[in-house]
Design brief:
- The complex is a heterodimer of chains A (about 180) and B (about 270).
- Chain A has about 180 residues and is mainly α.
- Chain A is built from nine helices and no strands.
- By secondary structure, chain B is α+β, with helices and mostly antiparallel strands.
- Chain B has one domain.
- Chain B has four helices and twelve strands.
- In chain B, strands 2, 3, 4, 5, 6, 7, 8, 9 and 10 form a nine-stranded antiparallel sheet that branches. In chain B, strands 1-11-12 form a three-stranded antiparallel sheet.
- Classes of the chains: A mainly alpha (about 180), B alpha+beta (about 270).
- Chains A and B meet through helix 1, helix 2, helix 5, helix 6 and helix 9 of A and helix 1, helix 2 and strand 12 of B.
Chain lengths: ~180, ~270
């Protein structure tokens, strides 16, 4: 039984196709934001769950990306206040995150960078990730965060200062590699 | 500055959650939302040529629209509270079922349009001031054809000075309005709106303003396959499959404007 207007097979198939095409990138952004794969997966699930409900009114592909990015960001910024981490589905096959990544695959650079990012306040971190990881314009970031372009610039500036302070000499090394 | 993030671009990742699992979780979440917070636009109504079994018990007098400019709330009847509606949804559904003319089968209906074993009053919206809308609906069947009769209770709107000038789509949102007139039944003024919509066919609503709220008895010839629903929580919009099996509409409305107005004006829907 279907409850939603896009519960038709075609719409579900489109949704699944979109998930398979974009979920990895979305989750990676979530990981850069939060530094935790489990959390990143949950944030991704939240974003795609909301996308499922909104699917009928999102016709353009760019709108899908924008919607997912926005819901992901909101979930990331709201995670202390919402019980989302208790709501995600579990079941057979959902324990895939217990698969360890080969130790050799870790890099010192990544560890240093992620640790530094995690020391930056969340909203500033979000600005940095949107500007320099997602490569969005100041205006696009302002739109996503519902603030002015000036606020984005100042947050980015402070975030970079935080990052420089957190990385210290490592920043130069990261830039040169 | 982008270069700083380079070490993260090629990092190894754990496997993604399978799409089937994500889809299942999304559907489950949507169902949960639909059951608790959806504002379902049930396009209901009456207005066919059949004779109602439970015709108005009071003489019906139609008031020309030109003379109906001012209607005050009926002081005798108080709008029910959510608590009362929750506990009295069974008798309300029973009153709707008994009002359906002979020749049809009627049963309580869920927000998804399916028959359910026990009647339920669904709170479909609340506003910041505590005003609410709640609905009890009954699915009307004639062999493989289906329509709906329902009653929407609300406390979020005050009685307008001219009922035919505002909120005509109340309870029948999404339909194209074709007429509005006032019908007085036993001294109770009832606004009757005629409308139609794709999938629903003919639609009729009978609105009675109460003290502190209103009730709208609505009936529709058919059930739209999907109805727009709004999530008051985060302003999302989605669709609820109110006719998931795409059953065809009734051949005519089971209610006339007068019989529906009589039902709205009578005591059976005031719990």
């Amino acid at each position: 039984m279907s409850f939603l207007g896009f519960g038709r097979r075609r719409a579900d198939a489109d949704y699944v196709a979109y998930y398979e095409a974009r979920a990895a990138a979305v989750r990676k952004t979530a990981y850069v934001l939060c530094g935790d794969w489990h959390l990143a997966e949950d944030l991704t699930q939240i974003a795609f769950t909301k996308l499922y409900r909104a699917w009928p009114r999102l016709e353009r592909h760019e709108a899908l990306d924008g919607y997912v990015r926005q819901t992901l960001l909101r979930a990331f910024l709201d995670d202390r206040r919402r019980p989302w981490h208790r709501e995600h589905a579990t079941g057979p096959g959902s324990g895939v995150f217990d698969v360890p990544v080969a130790a050799a695959a870790y890099s010192a650079d990544r560890e240093i960078l992620l640790a530094a990012l995690n020391r930056i306040p969340k909203r500033r971190r979000a600005v940095l990730v949107l500007r320099y990881w997602e490569d969005l314009s100041v205006e696009q970031v302002a739109d996503l965060l519902d603030c002015s372009a000036g606020t984005v610039r100042s947050q980015a500036s402070r975030g970079l200062a935080d990052l420089r302070a957190a990385l210290g000499d490592d920043l130069v090394e990261l830039m040169l590699r | 500055m982008k270069d700083v993030f380079e070490p993260l671009r090629e990092m190894p990742e754990p496997p993604l959650r399978p799409s089937a699992l994500v889809l299942r979780a999304a559907k489950r979440s949507a169902r949960r939302r639909a059951a608790t917070t959806a504002l379902v636009v049930l396009a209901l109504a009456g207005g066919g040529s059949l004779v109602a079994r439970e015709l108005p018990r009071h003489p019906v007098r139609e008031t020309p629209a030109a003379q109906s400019a001012t209607v005050t709330p009926t002081p005798a009847a108080q709008a029910p509270s959510l608590t009362v509606l929750a506990s009295r949804s069974g008798p309300i559904a029973g009153a709707l079922i008994r009002a359906v003319p002979p020749g049809y089968r009627a049963a309580p209906m869920s927000l998804e349009g399916l028959e359910i074993p026990a009647a339920a009053a669904y709170t479909v919206r609340t506003d910041a001031r505590g005003g609410f809308r709640a609905v009890v609906a009954v699915r009307v069947r004639d062999q493989n054809r289906v329509g709906v009769v329902g009653v929407l209770y609300g406390t979020d709107l005050a009685a307008p000075k001219d009922p035919c000038a505002t909120d005509l789509g109340l309870g029948i949102e999404g339909s194209t309005i074709s007429g509005c007139r006032m019908v007085t039944v036993g001294g109770v003024p009832v606004r009757v709106v005629t409308a139609a919509g794709p999938g629903t066919g003919a639609v009729l609503s009978a609105t009675r303003y109460l003290s502190g709220g209103y009730l709208v008895v609505t009936a529709s010839q058919g059930i739209r396959a999907y109805q727009v629903a709004a999530d008051g929580g985060d302003a999302n919009t989605w669709y609820v499959a109110t006719n998931p099996h795409n059953e065809p509409p009734l051949t005519g409305l089971p209610f006339t404007a007068e019989s529906l107005a009589g039902l709205a004006a009578g005591p059976t829907l005031i719990p």
